[in-house]
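Example 5.3 — 8-oxoguanine deaminase
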Amino acid sequence: MDKPILIRGADHILTMDDFRTELFGADILISGGTIRTIGPRLSVPGAEVIDATGCIVTPGLVNTHHHLYQTLTRAVPGGQDALLFGWLKTLYPIWAKFGPEEIHVSAVIGLAELALSGCSLSSDHLYLYPNGARLEDTIEAAQRVGLRFHPTRGAMSIGESKGGLPPDSLVEDEAAILEDCIRVIDAFHDSRDGSMCRVGVAPCSPFSVSRELMRDAALLARDKRVMLHTHLAENDEDIAYSKAQFGCRPGQYAEDLGWTGDDVWHAHCVKLDATEISLFARTGTGVAHCPCSNCRLGSGIAPVREMRDAGMKVGLGVDGSASNDAGNLVAEARQSMLLQRVSRGADAMSAREALEIATRGGADVLGRPDCGRLATGKRADIAIWNVSGIESAGSWDPAALLLAGPMKVKHLLVEGRQIVRDGQMTHLDLPALIAQQNSLARRLME
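Solution (predicted structure tokens):
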């Protein structure tokens, strides 16, 4: 068993436990990857001590939607000012040049960026596999970074020649897709409490796969007892496409094909109407809210207030770095709060509620009640934020991190292992990785 760790003397602990307990001047004892005790003046001989004086402690943040490979295509000129479909058409030919190295390095960079923003658990939606790329290129990246990971085996099967959006070079045969889903689930999915890797099944979107693949993917996922993920109701184009092609709104299409339930979460859902919100709340279907990407692509403001009030599970996602163009989850939480306020009033969402969505909310969306909260027996995924710096100077409530707080974590622990120390990754040579990433990007520009 690893040496016990004692986080000592935190100014303020926001537990996000069942009672939303907040503690002052308390300690946290960690052993064997879990939280053993939380309380004042703990004494553990021989424990490694992390001094949390001048700090706020929260659960590690949870990212429920990402496309890690896109960290190689930030700020591409042709896609900077395009709406979703035009943006995709600009980027598809570039992504078709990727291979295993591009997928892996971009995932390492993307996950490291998330870790530095306090994220301890991230999903990923990888839906293209050009030139020999495989899902394990990202899984190995997560192992290298040390983050808890929920990769999803995405797919596209309807190319341009069949009326779809992606080029034919990026689509796959549907039988081969399902076969590879089985392969990666059998090889990498771990359903146990404290799992560092769980695999999901994730056809890209209703406009890039067939109705049959959507239905078969749901059947496969339930047979394997893994979760389902896709994009849904992202913008007005998405709604129009659904009505034209399927004769119904996206929520109805999802329900008809088995894509509702507590083992399903959808990305974006900017354009859900009241009936769809009620459906998702009733069935326990989760949503990954991606506010910065939705702003960047002009998709709109998701009705998160209405979703939460209806009892829906809502988490945060940074989305791909080609549509964000960043991977900072605490900035995402702040943006979520601000968008609800600008659209529904200054009292529409508090800083603490937005932080709850970014922690406990995201963990619940991903089916991880063992994460996203600080309580005895929960996983030791812990973010420690320095609030003695300039960002919080003059703040009357330093725990309102999203109003006046740092955008970068001081320390981050995942499964009790320190991934970030004093604002730096503990075991990655980031300058070398950045140079490798930039070299790959230049090669793609040729």
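Remark. The first strand starts at residue 5 and ends at 14.
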